[in-house]
Design goal:
Chains A, B: It catalyses: (6R)-5,10-methylene-5,6,7,8-tetrahydrofolate + NADP(+) = (6R)-5,10-methenyltetrahydrofolate + NADPH; (6R)-5,10-methenyltetrahydrofolate + H2O = (6R)-10-formyltetrahydrofolate + H(+). 2 copies of one chain form a homodimer. By secondary structure, chain A is α/β, with parallel strands linked by helices. Chain A has a 6-stranded parallel beta sheet. The longest helix of chain A is centred in the first third of the chain and has 21 residues. The first copy, chain A, is globular, with a radius of gyration of 19 Å. At the A-B interface, α5, α7 and β6 of A face α5, α7 and β6 of B. β6 of chain A pairs antiparallel with β6 of chain B.
Chain lengths: 282, 282
């Protein structure tokens, strides 16, 4: 019977450590503050922002939300980013995804000062990540590695399969796992036979957003399964993996909720603190 | 019986087109010029520089070599890069690899103006590549795609295996092939069973530098084999692939020499011209 990888508990543990670090910074007059730019009124975005706010409050980090209308122009978005780039009290800037179609996201991201790029989405920070020089780490990928490390699951020489090639999860996770000497396969919507890959994976990561995508016959006996998917089915939050059926077959599996989700939020806070410390030479 | 993918011929064809473009630029008073910084006296480096020089001359591009001593200090390297960054006549700057141990290569690369980064090794250009926004393309990866395109070998939905995770070949090639909707596996020295992956690959790329690494039983019937390796064995240049034994089994294979090598050099010249045109608004 597989064991759950308890992301919620690890996130709480790490948050407690972070809280102590933040107290110390505050006692020196340094307040970790980051800004979330939210454009439009996507209900999931609002929920994520609320979840982040709760964790930030707990740790002592200030999250400032810039709520912009759905009709927001590109130009005034860039002007806002410029202003936040200049603001010495701001240590992190992130754009909540998704953005409305009139927004050129790449241009907006490229506008963020890499020193305040808490999501690791500016070109130079992405490039640094790929060459093993981590200025910041994307929250989800950081969370996945923290969880594997906590349970002493090694990546060296392992066969890793990542489903999903997004800039926020699949690609950066591939970079970090490759750096840890895993052999990495990146699958996506155009991959014809997912199972051909997944059934050989020592570590399987699904980051698609498709409930029940991963069924038991797709998973190797004693594999480690990391479920990054978040889907709403019958008013319940579920991942990409059919956990009930797969848990008996594997060695470790993340629950949804309570797996990677809380670690992503907590990891984001770690990046805010990292950027704050660096900016203040701490 | 497999067909050779004739990189030499394609490189010559593309060079002829490039030559016309360069003539036109020159008639407008614009001279494509790039600088190669070579530190120490690695014989292979000197050979590569000579090969590049020959192609540059043919096309009408100026290659300027800065030959620095093996004992070159980091500081004076950075000063040289600064000077070339400032020089309006210089459109491309590259550091010939390898560099001696006292040189901090990452720092030096980060020093190059991304607008002159002809090798696509500065962090921001690497990051742009990974998000599908190609400011420049690394020469070898560009050459591989040009060759596949020329022979109308599609990447969409294909199973690609890349052996080698270097910053100059394996990683950028993975980015470009993923963008073309291939499913990409990245293998390396810590991969335990190369054959487990290679024998299922529709397209197999070896970029290791190890003669006879790829034997017939590792390759799928009718696969496409791209050999990026360059090895000297008994005074002959050979790739990573045992071509004689493998050619009968596959549909296409690159020869070594005459495959990816000439395309890499020609692709570099394309990048020089691309940067020159962009800088001049052409």
């Amino acid at each position: 019977m597989g064991q759950f990888l308890d992301g919620k508990n690890l996130a709480d543990e790490r948050a407690a450590i972070l809280k102590t670090q933040v107290s110390k910074l505050k006692s020196q007059g340094i307040v970790p503050l980051f800004c979330v730019i939210n454009i439009g009124d996507d209900p999931s975005s609002k929920l994520y922002i609320k979840t982040k706010k709760r964790r930030a409050d707990e740790i002592g980090i200030v999250q400032k939300v810039y709520q912009l209308p759905k009709t927001q122009s590109q130009q005034s978005l860039l002007t806002l980013i410029d202003r936040l780039n200049q603001d010495k009290k701001v240590y992190g800037i992130m754009i909540q995804l998704p953005v409305p179609p009139q927004i050129n996201l790449n241009e907006a991201l490229e506008h963020i000062d890499p020193e305040k790029d808490v999501d690791c989405l500016t070109p130079s920070n992405v490039g640094r990540l790929w060459r093993g020089d981590h200025y910041v780490e994307p929250a989800t990928a950081h969370g996945v590695l923290a969880l594997l490390d906590h349970y002493q699951i090694k990546l060296h020489g392992k066969k890793v399969v990542i489903i999903g090639r997004s800039s926020i999860v699949g690609k950066p996770l591939a970079a970090l796992m490759l750096e840890r000497d895993a052999t990495v396969s990146i699958l996506h919507s155009k991959t014809k036979q997912l199972a051909e890959y997944t059934k050989n994976a020592d570590i399987l990561v699904s980051a698609v957003g498709h409930a029940n995508l991963i069924t038991p016959e797709m998973v190797k006996e004693n594999a480690v399964v990391i479920d990054v998917g978040i889907n709403r089915v019958n008013n319940q939050t579920v991942g990409d993996v059919n956990t009930v059926l797969i848990k008996p077959k594997v060695s470790f599996i993340t629950p949804v909720p309570g797996g990677i989700g809380p670690l992503t939020v907590e990891s984001l806070m770690e990046q805010v603190v990292k950027l704050t410390r660096r900016k203040n030479g701490r």
